[in-house]
Structures are given as C-alpha cells and as structure tokens.
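job 3f2a | input accepted
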Amino acid sequence: MKQNFVKILSTGLLACTVWSCSFLDVSDELAGGISDISQVFSNVDRTKKWYSQVFNNRPDYSAVWVTDSPMGNPWTAYSDEIYTRLANNAGKYTEWNSSNSNSQRWNTLYGSIRQANIFLEQAHPIVDEGGPDADRLTEEEIKLYKANVRFMRAAYHYYLMELYGPIPIVDHSMTLEDDLDLPRNSLDEVIEFIDRELKECMEEMAQEPYHDNENLRAVPTKGAALALRAKLWVYAASPLFNANPIEGSNEIHRYASPDLERWKRAADAARQVIELKNPDGTKAHELFPSYQRLFFTNFGNTESIIVKCRNLTNDVEAANGPSGYQSCRACTSVTAELIDMYELKSGRLPSEDPDYDPQKPYENRDDRFYASVLYSGVPLWGREVELYTGGKDYPAAIGQRGCETGFSLYKHIDPLASVVPAKYTLHNHQILRYAEVLLIYAEAMNEYLGTGDDDMCTDEMIYDCVNEVRQRAGLPPVSGLTKGQMRELIHRERTVELAFEEVRLYDLKRWREAETVLNRPVHGIKVTQEGGTIVYGEKFAVEERSFPMRMYYYPIPQSELDKNSALVVNPGW
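job 3f2a | predicted structure (573 res):
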C-alpha cells in the first residue's frame, strides 16, 4: 500500500502541471510534455499559473446543496440552519465511518499544501526570457507571491484542523527519501505553526485598497492574515480545546490545561484588523452598507477579507430558487430553528415580544431576515413566492422538489439575476469578513474579562463591536448585559449574521453545544392558504437529527490510515 503512495507522490513531483484539477493525479496529456519541475519555474507564464492554482481550493460556501465537492458546503445542512435533501442529511451521521463519510477534504487540501510547498521551494526571479521585451518576474514580485502562498498554506492547515482536529504539519515537499509515515502534530504545535506562518508572511503581504482593482480582488492582504489569526485563536480558546474536551480525546486533541490568555490573543488579533489602516490612512475594512448586496459586490466592498469570487453565473439561483420557477431546483429549505433566532425590530426574540403576531412572522424582523429567507408573498422574478401547501413553490409530497419547511433560502440568491430567461450575476462568497472579526473581538474579550457569568460586561469596545453589526441589521443597541447574557447574544448574532456561510456547525462544536443542539429534530412550519389569506400553523418535525460525540472530530479517511501507519484515529472512529 505504501509503495503505491510513493508512486503517486513521485508523479506529483515530476509530472504535475498547474492545469490539472487534481495535483497528485495528472494525465500525460495534462502534463503537457513537462518531465521536470524546473521546467515550470524557468518559465514566467507557467510560474504564474502554478501560483494562481494555489488559491483554487478556498472553500465555496455557496454550494450548500452539494455533497461530492470537497470544498463545497454541505456543513450548513449538517447544522440546524437548513434542510436539504441533496446534502445526505445529518441524520445519517450514525451510519458514517472512516470509509463512507461525505465531504472529505484531506486529500484536496494536502494536495494544495503540496502545491504551495513546491512553489515556495522552486519559484525564483526570472530576469530574462527570450529577449529584452519578454516577461520577467522580479525579486519583489516573487517575494510577494511567496508571502501570499505562505498565507494559503497556513489557511489550508487551518481548514484541515477545523474539520479533523490536529493534523500532520507539512511544511516542505515530500521526496522519496522522506519518511512518509507522518504522525499528527499536537493541537499546540498546529496552532503555533499556523500562527507563526501568518505573523511572518503578513510582513511581506500588501495592504493596498485593492477592492477597486479587478486584477487583485482575490489576492490576500495583511488584513487577511490578521483576521485568520483572530479566527484561529478564538477557535483554540473555545471550550472544545481549552476547557471542556470530549471524552476519549488526548494530548493530541486538546491543551493540557485551560488558559484565558488564548482568548486575549484572539481579541488582540481581531483588534489589529479593526484598527488596520491603508497606506493613505483610511480604514482597511468596514461593514458594507447593504447586508444583501455585499454577497454580490466586489468593488468598494472592504468588508470582504477572504473571499472566493465566481463571475457571472446563475447556478446558485438555479439550485436554490423556488421550484415553481422554471429550471429552479429548490434545494434548500430554512428551518424554524433559524427563523426563531431573528429578533424583531424591538430587539426582542419572537418568544419574548408581546407584540409578536405568529400569523405574521415576517413583520418587523431583523433586516438580515429579509435578505436571507424567502417566505410566501415575497416578490421575486415577476411574481410573489408561494411556499404554502398547494402553492406554486410547494412540493406535492415530502421528498419532492420544493419548500418543505415553509421558508426557503434567499441569501446567495440575487434578485437581479434570473434563471429563465438567463441573467447572470457576480457571486462574492465570503469566507471571512469584517463582521465576523467584530464578533470575534466581542466574544474573545467577553470570555477573557470577568470571572463569572453574572459579572457585568463593562468593556465598551465589546458593545461597540456588537452594536455596529446590529445597527446595520436595523436593531437597537444593547447595553448593561452580564457576561453570560453577552455570550448568549454573541452566539445568536454569529448565527444570524453568518448564516449559510459554513460557520454554525463549527461554532456549535467549538462551544461544546453540538451534542445538545444537533441531537434533536429540525422543524418546519405548516403554511396554508385559507380564503386568500396565508395561515401559519404548528411546527412539525421535517427531519430527525443526531450528533454522535465522535462527530466533534471528522474521521480521517481510511485510505489515509492505510497509507500512513503513524496516524492516530479521532475519538470514537
């Protein structure tokens, strides 16, 4: 088995080119006649293509309906945000094992790490190629390229850790002389490696106002490195690793002892992003004025920090648009659990506001509700959406195409685009944005300060960060909360602000809440039409959900365990 692994690595070393979709498995045709890796990096065009390919495996959080894309986003459906029949639903967790679990990212991300390592080792300035007018790669360009590639290598290690827990650190390209049985590094080692890489590479990264430059819109900046550091440390500081590890975890999976300073490191990194300036003195990052349009706007959108841009497509609209519209597949229904988390304009939850009318659940809600959720009566593409029983967008039976919860996904759907007739739009899929940085600071500093949940939260910047996010949503500011009340609020703000952006599941896991929140059904609301009036009835269970404790860490693929005898399986697998 190991012999076969070596062969694949060798192929990747010598014959792989940047035109291949899979870095470790490339055909002779795709190899383009290149027999030695130096032939790539002696050529300007090939070097730049290799560089661009390092960025290819950023997650695509738009594809919530996809199960077979390693960097797609079925994770939203595995939480309590949506129900989708096409995501191999979370209730099947109990049937998974290391050989059949969905959405493995191990091979994909380690392939990208390998690409990054080879670039860092092989790329060099090209002073002259074919004459004075030929393309060149200057030392300054290579230095910037390598800083950006180091950032991506750190990011790919983070995405692996987020899913699998601590993983082997691979900071160089493997050769046939290397020991291929790589053990998992400890949590502390992985966190420190990613942190060190981000701190070092950011010194060489640009911090220009690139959001108005089409050619630079996907290039990471110093702000991206700082923001990822903040997310890294808020993850490390959370209960799953820092205070309340799951049974069966060991020194690989957790810190030896809790330390509040980890929260402080997260807060400090987030604050650096908040205070970051462009060379001209303007703020590097600010909230985009429109919550809805930030997902379809590149230029001038400094809320975007790490983003994956998809130009001029309507595939998201086709996959998620209500079923009554021609060629729309209605893959995603929003759960009642998420609906209940959106506050009213009063700042109260529906269960807390005496003025809330359950027959008008869409009135006077958080602005993010209207940008994220479709309900019956919303005008879309020339008519009003009909998600009630018997409506144009309701399925004939459970399991058929259509809305199954009474509410459908709107976020990521551009009302200015359409499927029939075809009208395309830019999809700006946020991986890490400024709103999350504000909430990271608030969460981390709230956990760092005070000793008990009943202590008052008195840090003004915590309130400033939370209220900045709430203000855009049309909600009143908060004040005078205890540490425990602020924690509850921040958790809810993260849920609704970052809904459908591959955040909720990982949040529930790091907070050690997944075994409670996800071990119960998700619900829809019975919606009917009576005498021309939409009637909202009782909640009903649309799907049973389960969350075995072993799902806190995703299973390492059995194929990798067979190849690498030094790998230790995750608890419960």
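job 3f2a | The longest strand covers residues 533-543.
job 3f2a | closed
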